[in-house]
Amino acid sequence: MVINGREKHLFYVSIAIGLAALFFVYEWSQDVRFNEKLDSLRAELLGPQAALEKESKAQQSDIISLKELINREQVIKKSQDELLTAAVAKATPAVVSIVVSKDVPKLEVVYVNPFGEDPFFKDFGFRVPVYRQKGVERQKVGAGTGFLATKDGYIITNKHVVEDAEAQYTVLLSDGRQENAVVIYRDPAQDIAVIKIPGSGYKTISLGDSDSLKLGQTVVAIGNALGEYSNSVSVGIVSGLNRKITASSGSGTEELSGVIQTDAAINPGNSGGPLLDLNGNVVGVNVATVIGSSNISFSIPIDSVMESIKRIISI
Predict the structure, then answer these.
(1) 271 among known catalytic residues
(2) pLDDT digit string (tens) for 265-287?
(3) Catalytic: which of 160, 210, 297, 299?
(4) CATH assignment of 210-309, given 2.40.10.10, 3.30.750.24, 3.30.950.10, 3.30.1370.20?
(5) How far, CA to CA in Å, does 250 sit from each of 24, 113, 134, 236, 239?
(6) Where are the domains of the chain?
(7) Which residues contact 206 (CB under 8 A, 6 or more apart)?
(8) Among this protein's residues, is 9 annotated catalytic?
(9) Computed over its alpha carbons, how large is the radius of gyration of the chain?
(10) pLDDT of 162-182, one tens digit each?
(11) Considering the entire predicted model, what is its pTM?
C-alpha cells in the first residue's frame, strides 16, 4: 500500500494528537495524586489543631451548661424560699398558742414540834420545817398549739394538750389577743380535740390533702415551741408514711397508726400545731417527737383528722 503525502501528514497529526492526549491524562493523574497527597498532609498537619478546636468548643459548651445548671439551681432555691415564706405568711395568722392553767395549792413553810403534843417533849424547843397549804393559786401547768379551722372560733389541737378537765385553757392569737377556750370534743380513738373561743371573723387556715403526700416532700411545722416561742417555724421533709407509734403523755400511753414521719423539728409545745405543704395548706397535726432523736417527729394526717371531727365542725 502506498501512502501519499497528504495521508502521511494526517497520520503524523493523529499520532501527535494521541501523544498529547496521553500526556494530558498522565499530567492530570499526577495532579490528582499530588492533590490527594496534599490533602493527606494537610489533614496530618491540621488534625491536632482541629482536635484542639473541637475540645475547646466542647469545654466551652460544658462551661455554658455548668453556668446554666447553677442559674437553674439558684432559680429553684429562690423559688423554694419564696414558696416557704409565702406558705408561712399564709398560715401564721391562724395558728394559736394554747396556755394550760390550773389552781394549784399555795404552800407556806411552818415550823412544828416533830413530836406533836407529847407533853414530855413539849418544852424541848425543837422544831422542823414542814409545808402547809395556804389557799390555792392559778399557775401555768402546760402549753400547746392549735389552729383555727373556722371563722367562728373552732380550733383543732391534740387531745393530750387539753386532757385535764379541771384546767383552764387560754388561747393566744397571732395579733396578741387572748381568749378563754372551752373544750368541745376529745376524740376517743385519736389524739385529736376541738376547742372553741368566742367571737367571729377569725383568719382560718386552708386544709390540704394528706393522701397525696410523697416521701421527700418539703413540709413546714409551726408551733409554740417549748411553750415559750409562739409561731416558731421549722422546715423538713416527709421522712415516712403510715407509721405506727406508741406515744406517751401525762395521762398514759396511746397507740397511733397511719401517722406521718417528718424531720421538721417538733418540740414540746408544738403539739397540736399544723404541718404544712409549700402551698400553706395543712397536711397534718403535729403530735409527737422521739426524745433524744435527731428530729424524728410525727403528725396525724389531716384527712384522718377531718374524718373524725366532721360531725363537730363543718368545713
Answers:
(1) yes
(2) 888 888 999 999 999 999 999 99
(3) 160
(4) 2.40.10.10
(5) 112, 37, 26, 28, 27
(6) 210-309
(7) 90, 91, 279, 280, 281, 282
(8) no
(9) 44
(10) 999 899 999 999 888 999 999
(11) 0.67
